[in-house]
Amino acid sequence: MSVLRQPDVLGRTRRQHVLGATAALSAGAVEAVSVGVWFVLAVGSRTATTALIGVVVLVGGALLRARVVAAVVGSRRLRRGPRWLGLSLVATAGWICWLLLAETVGSPVGPIVATALLGAVLSAQFALEQAACRSRSADPDRLAAVVPGLLLAIGAGLLLWSAQVPDWAIDSPPLPLGVATVVVRIEPLQLGLLGFGVLAICAHQRRFQRLLEA
């Protein structure tokens, strides 16, 4: 009987890995776009309009990411009711406080302290979200949410670095494109956004692997 069941087990495991990778890519992309757009608006033109737009984008991204998590793990408790809204607002407040603290304290202490606190807030938010996705709150791995939170915090540190380094750029040689010539320019903020996106996908890959295995 165990021999007959083995192909089905392997198939289920393979589908689980594919589902986890797809979900991580989706959630990581949502996280990268929403936080990235908010960060660019926050460090750019400081007006009430851009601040409001940035917060709306950040909240919307957090809500959409929570919905992705709920859909993948099949959690009706997270999909319905105010729980997913509250968890999304916790993440949004963490990002806003992170940037305010980093700018208020100033370099070099401010970014370090703010990033460390952001990692703690995101880890706690992920742990609460993980508990909300289950019918039982018991989890043998109490530190399962710490690594994803730290990965996102490191990505946040890259964003701060990219916004604070002196201006520089890498220009490619002129590339002929029909009758025009194109020059590709790489700036620190672009590298920071790319690094954050990669770490966001890795963080959510770790989360979904743990959620789908539990």
Automatic annotation (TrEMBL):
Keywords: Membrane, Transmembrane, Transmembrane helix. The chain crosses the membrane at residues 21-41, 47-64, 84-102, 108-131, 143-162, 182-203. This is Uncharacterized protein. It comes from Natronococcus amylolyticus DSM 10524.
